Amino acid sequence: MTVALAPGVYWVGVVDWNIRDFHGYLTEDGSTYNAYLLIDDKITLIDTVKKEFLPEMLARVAEIVPLEKISYIVSNHVEMDHSGGLPEAVERIKPEKIFSSPQGKAGLSRHYKQDWPFVEVRTGDQVSLGRRTLSFLETPMLHWPDSMMTYLKEEELLFSSDAFGAHLASSERFDDQLPDHPEDYAHQLKKYYANILMPFGTLVTQLLDKIAKMGLTFKTIAPDHGLIYRRNIDWVLSLYQKWAAGVPEPKALVIYDTMWHSTEMLAQAFIQGLTDAGVEAQLHHLRSTHSSDIVTEVLDAGLLLVGSPTLNNNLFPTVSQFLTYLKGLRPKNKAAAAFGSFGWSGEAVKLINQELEAMKLKLVHEGFKVKYIPDPAELAAARKLGEQLARENLES
Ligand code: FEO
After folding, report:
1. CA 30 to CA 36: how far, in whole Å?
2. pLDDT tens digits for 43-66?
3. CB atoms within 10 A of CB 95
């Protein structure tokens, strides 16, 4: 059965039910790689899928039109979950033209080293397909330099590439088909934003402003992952606006690892203190909660307490790994502090502080350190500090 978004506009992507690790991001609900086919005088394919799924995508296309009838391919994004199938697709389709941004052409040329019939397009460029028109919107660093979106004017349909996407495998293709939407979908949408787009909040805000200034209106937003929006468009745009602004909630996270439970005892005491302050508090043990799930919660948290034991004069490896990942995501508008236990040297707190400062987070305490096992007085002090930091740094 074919899936139509509008007359002559079809979803021809694939559902990846089994993926659980998307370059390190935990995709517990699988994903989709969405590609689209436009039937017009110039039949056009928008994006492809991961290389190993290309036969399935081509079979879906062939249910609608013979491959050789396709004239154009639009490549909105070089990343291989959307371009991996391009070499075989080009070989089979032999398109007249492949439209991409200038950076897209450079990236695809570098990836696939083929002499393809590229046509570079920039923001505002238009291509007539016959009865309908495509226009292009460059979105550099949302989230790669080459990224762009494609707008089908007559249908008010935006092919938004990775933006507004979510990793979710489902038999439904549209947001209004998912029961209890939008709440059920919101988590995967937020997780995607946090792990992919968090560093680029300022650019997201600029893009949303630009879309408003250009007067673009949408009946449908068709991202390259997850569901296609036709009911909750204002909802998804407003969530992006909120996340891009980075205004924190009265919410604190205690993120830690532990060797012999001393750092864990402190983490539990901090949680009690945060709870005493009446804010939302979450405890995340780094070997129990996946980093991609923790950063989903970091996105709108206002206070981060990060704990590590000192191991061989250093951070515990999971803490170091998490801080490296978090630093790349450039979190903003957050207060932060470090804690940890140690046996003899106790460098962990200092090392966490250095990482938090490198992220330009607001360091609100010099760090809470305990030698060996915390005693009741130290646990009480940690609890009191947790409450104090919440009251001083989170608006309830
Ligand atoms: Fe879904 Fe940036 O690739």
Report:
1. 20
2. 999 999 999 999 999 999 999 999
3. 22
Domain count, the chain: 2
User: Does residue 344 lie within any of the structural domains?
Assistant: yes
Give the domain CATH number at 266: 3.40.50.360
Asked whether 250 and 244 are in contact (CB, 8 A), the reply is no
Residue of 276, 254, 275 whose CA lies nearest to 265: 254
Q: What average pLDDT does range 163-186 have in this prediction?
A: 87
- Residue 72 is part of a domain; what is its CATH number? 3.60.15.10
Q: Is the pLDDT of residue 396 over 70?
A: no
Tell me whether residue 162 is one of the annotated catalytic residues: yes
Dist. CA 188 → ligand 1 center (Å): 15
Look at residue 377 and tell me if it is in a domain. yes
Let me know if residue 33 belongs to a domain: yes
* Residue-number span of the structural domain to which 122 is assigned: 3-245
- Residue list, ligand 1 pocket, CB within 6 Å: 77, 79, 81-82, 143-144, 162, 224-225
Ligand 1 centroid, distance to 100 Cα (angstroms) = 15
